[in-house]
Amino acid sequence: MASAMLSLASASPSASLSLQENLKISWKRGTSSRINFLGSDFSKTKSFTRTSMTVAVKVSRFKDITMAPPDPILGVSEAFKADTHEMKLNLGVGAYRTEDLQPYVLNVVKKAENLMLERGENKEYLPIEGLAAFNKVTAELMFGADNAVIQQQRVATVQGLSGTGSLRLAAALMERYFPGARVLISSPTWGNHKNIFNDARVPWSEYRYYDPKTVGLDFDGMISDIKAAPDGSFVLLHGCAHNPTGIDPTPEQWEKIADVIQERNHIPFFDVAYQGFASGSLDEDASSVRLFAARGMELLVAQSYSKNLGLYAERIGAINVVCASSDAAARVKSQLKRLARPMYSNPPIHGARIVSNVVGNPELFNEWKEEMEMMAGRIKSVRQKLYDSLCAKDKSGKDWSFILKQIGMFSFTGLNITQSENMTNKWHVYMTKDGRISLAGLSSAKCEYLADAIIDSYHNVK
Amino acid sequence: MSASSDHANSVFATVVQAPEDPILGVTVAYNKDPSPDKLNLGVGAYRTEEGKPLVLNVVRKAEQLLVNDPSRVKEYLPITGLADFNKLSAKLIFGADSLAIQENRVTTVQCLSGTGALRVGAEFLARHYHERTIYIPQPTWGNHPKVFTSAGLSVKTYRYYSPNTRGLDFQGLLEDLGSAPAGAIVLLHACAHNPTGVDPTSDQWEQIRQLMRSKGLLPFFDSAYQGFASGSLDADAASVRMFVADGGECLAAQSYAKNMGLYGERVGALSIVCKTAEVASRVESQLKLVIRPMYSNPPIHGASIVATVLKDRDLYNEWTVELKAMADRIISMRKQLFDALQARGTPGDWSHILKQIGMFTFTGLNANQVAFMTKEYHIYMTSDGRISMAGLSSRTVPNLTEAIHAAVSSVA
């Protein structure tokens, strides 16, 4: 074949130019202009091969690829790192910082890792569904060990790559087994939710959530939009500490949300990334999920240990699917495995072992609860300090109490894009453009500076 | 219990039980078997002479350093992963003196072992490359077609293994790649082809390269056994480096599961070699858009271990010694099995056991014979007749020999 091509070499420079143009056209996505190797374009191919038989294409196949914009959340940290200003403050990504603004590795995590090192465990592949010991403790942590759903083996639990990976597995399951079903997501929601459903090809629409007028929950809008969605839609709910707003439904509101979901035969899908971080109590923060489970509803829950165990980079989480029967749970689990295998084969062991060692060991578990309370406590105290600073410095009479009412790591300041940009450009305060600040990245020492920045941006920038 | 918990009302009523994965399912079945003589030759995971999993000394050392370092934190890695790890991985596969690296034409992103690298690469190509067909060798690793179709590529095969010769069907390969549409993606096993253990010679690689470049076929290398095939990291990267040396573009998926024994840590990398640094930078930005909605950023532990080993001269050298020892043990198992079959007088030509390269032997046993061996001798392997030599030891060779002998003699 190769020698045949060589012997047919011929043609003019203009022919080889049109080959390049041919290639250019066929690079554009969606078009199927093919270079017909054995057809009329053969002569053009040959002139190309004559000049570059043993050398590859002269032009990149990827030359028309555009530069993608930086991630709106993770890109903030990159920009922060590049800034040399001494007062710079990173309130972008939700990663917990100590009062000294240092990253924090929990003591229980260090203890668990040392135990693991001493034991000298092997590094064999986990099963596709992940570490069995981890799957057991993570479901128990979410639902309570004595919960009916666990006792009756109705939960399919599969270890996932933190919250993102668990959401993605669930989305893949939705796409395959609920074709055409859509997922309702809150307006606003974590920026990556849309990307996950887009890439998984699950259609989504929004339900009203944040009311800028009250800086609170648009409850009627939320109920109305959930009610109006097609029967059998998935409804993505933040289990606690809503990201980015920090606004959570009250227990009474959760009951009504469950009512309308049941009425419409929707499927609740909880994203639980902050269990323990909202109130400081692991059980209290699980109450919305448990409320739904107690009604006998089938539901999905994605969990993450990035924040509450500080295991960000270890990528440890789980997808739980509560089913009507243990048989359904077994089948669902088998299909989740089938989706994970062509994505990464089996999940990473290190984070899973840490979690199972901490949660599975009563002493470490109790110590964890204390560290959890400490972290949540620090955030509550900077909320208070920020609020106090704002009230002291701002003479306009604006009500800043939303800062105290919001729950979890984040505060939705209500600042718009231009105002948020002012925070960064003038004050070197890094945050996401939706006006979200991560209080986990704030120290008491910097509360006053931040208050100045917020007041300036709010009043002096439109 | 309320009505909504009634089985009939489950929204998952139509979800059927999926079968076990054909490769990983072998271990599941093995674990269930109570027989004391059972032998797992299914998944390609290295075992010592004592039949135990092995954690390399350099890995233990690296882990000690990491866990005991008080300055280490667990902050999110960038979407593209650990920067040091990426640079070192690129050097490992392309060569420390690679021109493509020096010219910044390579983008490398940390991925979830080989599977993750293949998936991210495939998703990228499905979105940004004009040809959406990938040609995979016949046979290939069982998970390859699933990875590519999940990513949105369509899969075709090219002839590779010749059952008659138990070697490479080189003519068939050239014909099939020759008739592929120009620009099509071609999956190549960098070395130690899985499952056959049959690799092209370097002359054959050169012919493949010329053919592919003349048709603008895009090479996508899967390198899961660098160092394991011959015992030499450089020799095992020769095929990849041959393609990169001609200035052309290619993709390369790397795994550290086997060669650093980091199986469960899920450490790997995807490199895309581009024509220019500018293109490489844009390609990298698009890879991030694939990764972020999949798992946001990769796990830190395994990549840190690899980076620690690769950047330290002593640890690196120690690694190459341990790697060679593993490769040598496998080669000696090949010899032992071959000799045992010869001594037993088992019918057939078993020289392919010696000729095949890497962790696996494609025995030539058929599915019935395999089932017989599992049932009667508790020997677990994939139904295509592939056995993992890494799972054999001097102690277990006699049992395997008996099983093969019985299977070949009594099962059609």
From TrEMBL, chain A:
<keyword id="KW-0808">Transferase</keyword>
<dbReference type="InterPro" id="IPR000796">
    <property type="entry name" value="Asp_trans"/>
</dbReference>
<dbReference type="InterPro" id="IPR004839">
    <property type="entry name" value="Aminotransferase_I/II_large"/>
</dbReference>
<comment type="subunit">
    <text>Homodimer.</text>
</comment>
<dbReference type="GO" id="GO:0004069">
    <property type="term" value="F:L-aspartate:2-oxoglutarate aminotransferase activity"/>
</dbReference>
<comment type="similarity">
    <text>Belongs to the class-I pyridoxal-phosphate-dependent aminotransferase family.</text>
</comment>
<dbReference type="InterPro" id="IPR015422">
    <property type="entry name" value="PyrdxlP-dep_Trfase_small"/>
</dbReference>
<keyword id="KW-0663">Pyridoxal phosphate</keyword>
<dbReference type="Pfam" id="PF00155">
    <property type="entry name" value="Aminotran_1_2"/>
</dbReference>
<keyword id="KW-0032">Aminotransferase</keyword>
<feature type="domain" description="Aminotransferase class I/classII large">
    <location>
        <begin position="87"/>
        <end position="454"/>
    </location>
</feature>
<dbReference type="InterPro" id="IPR015424">
    <property type="entry name" value="PyrdxlP-dep_Trfase"/>
</dbReference>
<protein>
    <recommendedName>
        <fullName>Aspartate aminotransferase</fullName>
        <ecNumber>2.6.1.1</ecNumber>
    </recommendedName>
</protein>
<dbReference type="InterPro" id="IPR004838">
    <property type="entry name" value="NHTrfase_class1_PyrdxlP-BS"/>
</dbReference>
<dbReference type="InterPro" id="IPR015421">
    <property type="entry name" value="PyrdxlP-dep_Trfase_major"/>
</dbReference>
UniProtKB/TrEMBL annotation, chain B:
<keyword id="KW-0808">Transferase</keyword>
<dbReference type="GO" id="GO:0004069">
    <property type="term" value="F:L-aspartate:2-oxoglutarate aminotransferase activity"/>
</dbReference>
<dbReference type="GO" id="GO:0005737">
    <property type="term" value="C:cytoplasm"/>
</dbReference>
<dbReference type="InterPro" id="IPR015421">
    <property type="entry name" value="PyrdxlP-dep_Trfase_major"/>
</dbReference>
<protein>
    <recommendedName>
        <fullName>Aspartate aminotransferase</fullName>
        <ecNumber>2.6.1.1</ecNumber>
    </recommendedName>
</protein>
<dbReference type="InterPro" id="IPR015422">
    <property type="entry name" value="PyrdxlP-dep_Trfase_small"/>
</dbReference>
<dbReference type="InterPro" id="IPR004839">
    <property type="entry name" value="Aminotransferase_I/II_large"/>
</dbReference>
<keyword id="KW-0032">Aminotransferase</keyword>
<comment type="subunit">
    <text>Homodimer.</text>
</comment>
<keyword id="KW-0663">Pyridoxal phosphate</keyword>
<dbReference type="Pfam" id="PF00155">
    <property type="entry name" value="Aminotran_1_2"/>
</dbReference>
<dbReference type="InterPro" id="IPR015424">
    <property type="entry name" value="PyrdxlP-dep_Trfase"/>
</dbReference>
<comment type="similarity">
    <text>Belongs to the class-I pyridoxal-phosphate-dependent aminotransferase family.</text>
</comment>
<feature type="domain" description="Aminotransferase class I/classII large">
    <location>
        <begin position="37"/>
        <end position="404"/>
    </location>
</feature>
<dbReference type="InterPro" id="IPR004838">
    <property type="entry name" value="NHTrfase_class1_PyrdxlP-BS"/>
</dbReference>
<dbReference type="InterPro" id="IPR000796">
    <property type="entry name" value="Asp_trans"/>
</dbReference>
